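Example protein as discussed:

>
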Amino acid sequence: MKSSILFLLLVLSCGFTAQASPLKANASSISITPPISMKYPLGGYGERMNKPAEAVHDSIYAKALVLKKGDRKYAIITLDLLGLPNNVKTDLIKRLPGMGWDLENMMLLPSHSHGSLEMAALNSKNNLNNANLGIFQPELLEFVVNQLVTLVKAADQNYNSVKIGTGSATLEGLNRNRRKDPDIDKELLVTRVDLLNGKPLAVLVNWTAHPTFISGQDMLTSAEWPGYLQTTLQNLIGQGVIAMYYNGSEGDMSTVLNSPKKAYDKIEIYGKIIAEKAFGLYQTITPNKVQQFKSSYTTSKLPQHAAHPSFMKTGGEEYGLNAQTVKVVMDVLGPKEVGIGAIRIGDLVIAGAPGEMTAVLGQRVKKALRANGSKYVAIGGLANEWISYILSREQYLYGEGYESSVSFYGPDLGDVIAEGMIRTAMPLINHK
């Protein structure tokens, strides 16, 4: 009897120790700016016709925050990139064997900079040789993945116990719905990650707007306004902090900046404005030790590929496609299912959207998760891969414009992805 009680106490003690183990973290940053001699293309505009960057205006970076609690770990990786094909994440994981990384415990979050690399040039399935779409460049993919391997290895070591806090603010007059729909995500979310002694380790910033001050005629590599946001915030906080930006449901969200300045001046002005807003919010946040650290990952089957009726008016013309060739493109490049990830860190839940989700759908996901007990919800836009624009059924069927014409899975895609995001994130919320 006595030995049974001792055994029970031992089991309970082990369980308590595992549950109460501290959350630890490390962060790292690396340049992913290729050498100009590689003649890599810039993305975001079909009119660029796969032309190479002419020079570097400002460097582009990838940054990793790796969180660890007991035997569980998770990597949040932000990138100053337009977007990602799904092979980048799988290639990265393959090059980290035996380190405990898989599809489920890593989230890659591109900023959607239109001054950065062409994502079709990173797509190993891209054998289409279409300059409007972008041409696969194996050496560019190799460069980016190698840099990401170095980044993850640097962050996945030398962990320290951390305390974390998140805050939220509403910003007026800094973004708009470019489709003129009523839905606008005006929420700025800031998450500060500090060591227990108060030294800042990392800060995550979520703000929803397209980085498109740079046009298709501008051919300098740039992280766009998110680059200046991150650099300015790092300077304001100091102490070697790593600032990491991730976009939200930006499918129909544009910046607002009344300035006569040229594009490269505007990205600096706007980035600094958001950085100052983020710093003000950062200063109000009191980080605490985190008990809730969970992640979830599911797979959703996508609807059948379909070109929107208005495709030829906008996307088709820009990318040199017609109703027949777009089907070939989707059959080659478009996945038939997609992984959806979510992570909870204390009071914050980040729900990943694998493409450019519009604000009305992002608000639907946020509302559902908040209603079930999540204090803060961020949409991680373009998470892990870009499948297309993701619109509501009403926007797809009755709205015209660029966004609907570059949505390649029919009217049900928005419901499939939004419901998948909610289903994935809901288990992370336990009302505590």
User: Anything to note?
Assistant: The two ends are 36 Å apart (CA to CA). Residues 275 and 322 are 42 Å apart (CA to CA). The chain has eleven helices and 19 strands. The longest strand covers residues 160-170.
